[in-house]
Design goal:
This protein is α+β, with helices and mostly antiparallel strands and 175 residues long. It contains 4 helices and 10 strands; from the N terminus they run αβαβαββββαββββ. 19% of the residues lie in helices and 24% in strands. The longest helix is centred in the C-terminal third of the chain and has 14 residues, at 113-126.
């Protein structure tokens, strides 16, 4: 049975006086040209969106962005060449997602994947703001950002020039 919720109970309004928020987006070098189209999330879904929903995932720090990539890579394979994009987001465009209500486990991971996808899909459908701040499943005290590339305000996010991100092989057992 699907849980129902009022999105007003889940999201905090943006702080209109908030300064700019810095986020980081990491992608394979081969995907750098399309890093902000939401195609990967559209094709495969993610922790905070169902398949068929375009979302761009970014993290509050470059280190967290790297952890979010590494957790999905087969440790027997080399990490692909990565490109790091800094993103400047006007604070007034950031909606704050739930934290305290997410306390159940799903296959050893924090929170129910069904629940987080419902939250993200509802946020996309409501389309109030172009960015949703959510807790990281890896480090719940840190944040990831969902960017809606279809939202009219998405263009106000300033995407910086990408830089190669060398990854220390000790992080994934190829020392």
């Amino acid at each position: 049975m699907a849980s129902t919720f009022d999105s007003a109970d889940l999201f905090d309004s943006a702080d209109l006086s908030a300064p700019t928020v810095r986020a980081w987006r990491l992608v394979k070098r081969s995907r750098a040209a399309t890093a902000f189209d939401g195609e990967g999330a559209f094709r495969f879904g993610g922790r905070w969106n169902s398949k068929g929903q375009r979302v761009v995932y970014a993290s509050s720090t470059l280190a967290l962005a790297l952890l979010e990539i590494l957790v999905h890579i087969d440790p027997s394979r080399a990490v692909p060449e990565l490109m790091a994009f800094p993103v400047e987001i006007p604070g007034r465009m950031v909606e704050h997602g739930p934290r305290s209500s997410l306390d159940r486990l799903d296959d050893g991971l924090p929170w129910s994947l069904k629940e987080t996808r419902q939250i993200g899909d509802r946020w996309l459908a409501d389309a109030r703001l172009s960015v949703l701040q959510v807790p990281s499943a890896i480090i719940p005290l840190e944040s990831n950002f969902l960017l809606n590339p279809a939202h009219p305000d998405f263009a106000q996010c300033r995407i910086g020039e990408p830089s190669p991100l060398p990854v220390d092989t000790r992080l994934y057992g190829h020392a």
